[in-house]
Every structure is written in C-alpha cells, then in structure tokens.
Amino acid sequence: MKTLKDVISLKFKTSESEGVIFHGEGQQGDYITLELKKAKLVLNLNLGSNQVGSIYGHTSVMTGSLLDDHHWHSIIIERHGRNINLTLDRHVQHFRTNGEFDYLDLDYEITFGGMPFSGKPSSNSRKNFKGCMESINYNGNNITDLARRKKLEPSNVGNLSFSCVEPHTVPVFFNATSYLEVPGRPSQDLFSVSFLFRTWNPNGLLVFSNFADDLGNVEIDINEGKVSVHINVTQVKKNRIDISS
C-alpha cells in the first residue's frame, strides 16, 4: 500500500504500561508504530529517508499519561501527507513529520496488538499489547468486525477472544481521612507487605504498623514524591533505619 492519506482509529484499555498497539513497515524504510511506553502513548512514523542521510524521516510523538488504568481510551490518527492529527481522548495534537516524503509505503502486513519478530533489534525489545481493543478502523475498514467474521485475508489471528476479561484486582480509594486497619499476625518474626498505588499527592502515609511487645514500628510514606521506609527497633542502639527511593 502506498497512501497519501490515512485514518486509523481504535479504543483500548489495559493495565500494562508497555505494549505495541499496531505496527506496519515497508521495504523502503517506511514504518508506523503506535505503542505504550511507561503508560504513555508513543507514535513513531517514517515516510522515508534517503541513503545519503540528508533526508531523515523518523518522527516520534508522545502524548498522554497513566494510560494503564484499565479504562477505555480512544485514539484517532489522521494523516494527510506530512501533516498529522493525533487525538487521544479528544485531546488533539497536530504535528508535521520530518523528511520530505508525503506517502506512507507499507509493503508488509499491518499488525494489531504486537509486531512480528523481524530480527531487528527494535522488534525483540518491544512487548506485545495485553488488554482489550474495540472499534479498530483502518482507512474505512472495520478490522474488529472483519477479524471476528474471519474475513481478513490473508491474516494470522493468534489466540484472540472476542470478549474483554475484567481484571480480578479490586482497587481501594482513600481520601485524606480514610484508612484501612487489618489485624496483625502475632508470634511471627516476619513482616511482609506488598501493594500497588497511584496518587497525585507528593506526601502521605501508605502503611504503618506497631510491632508486638513494644519492639518498635515500621512506617512507609511518600515524602516530596519519594517513597520512604522507616523502621524503628527499640532493642537496638542504632534504633532507626531509613530507606528512601
């Protein structure tokens, strides 16, 4: 395919921060890749570079954040030559690609949800997408519907299910005054705690526990955007251990 115009749209939701949403490339060096990196959306596009190196077409644009929140996000990519509109959840970003070429020349397949292993260093370092997509539309073709009805030829549909499995994790929201208190485990010499958290606040107490028999306490908090662990042990002379990350 050699196109002057492209319109690509889809919706996705995921709890993973990395993953290739779609990818296409050509023998001339053209490519387009949309992926999640550190829970941000990254579009890499190249309409062509020349051998001499005077024309460098690679263009990379990043938008959004915290997109691994398992909520639906919508993407629209509209390209006319070198002019691109990238829309994420109604927020539009306009940019112009590098280089001097207007056509996107894709000789190979376009893949959604990952990219084929090509032997290039860029392919094996990228993770495939893990999550849900719907309403995939590529230049007027309803890819989701065609895949469901097995009308894509040629196609390689690997282990897809046409339903969206909800994650088993249940998030808990804390306001400034709420907290959750759980019973401790007496007569155990091991203290172990693990959790995921997300906040926009730079300060706050995450975990606090007193040890039995007045042996001390442990405190995990956020201080100026950094996670700190404080362990107080009353039986030791150097009784306070502070770890910051």
UniProtKB/TrEMBL annotation:
InterPro entries: ConA-like_dom_sf, Laminin_G, Neurexin-related_CASP. The gene is Cntnap2_0. SMART domains: LamG. Pfam families: Laminin_G_2. This is CNTP2 protein. Residues 1-164 form the Laminin G domain.
